[in-house]
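USER:
Try writing one entry.

ASSISTANT:
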Amino acid sequence: KIQSCAVAMGDAEGLKLFKQGNDALAQDKFEEALKCFTDSLKSVADENARSVVFGNRSICLRRLGRLEEALKDADQCVALDPKNAKGYLRQVQVYLGMSKWAEAYRQAD
């Protein structure tokens, strides 16, 4: 998905920040990844690419225990690209973290 994001982002700085965010996320450096993804959003216009960035940022926020913010990003991920299955997964993960079992089930269905 990074390669398709690269084309959609079009902006070298946005892509660089996105890749740095992914690298930080892979190393469980959630604060660093969050900053990279947030900065990346400033230069990304394509909705599908923004969806991916919001999804990744949602992971960071969830892992940092900022569940309300994580849910907003997961919702934004789905709103921008309803075909992005990972967006729905992010929503379910956040609902589970909030112990909102019915919402998680409903979203997973």
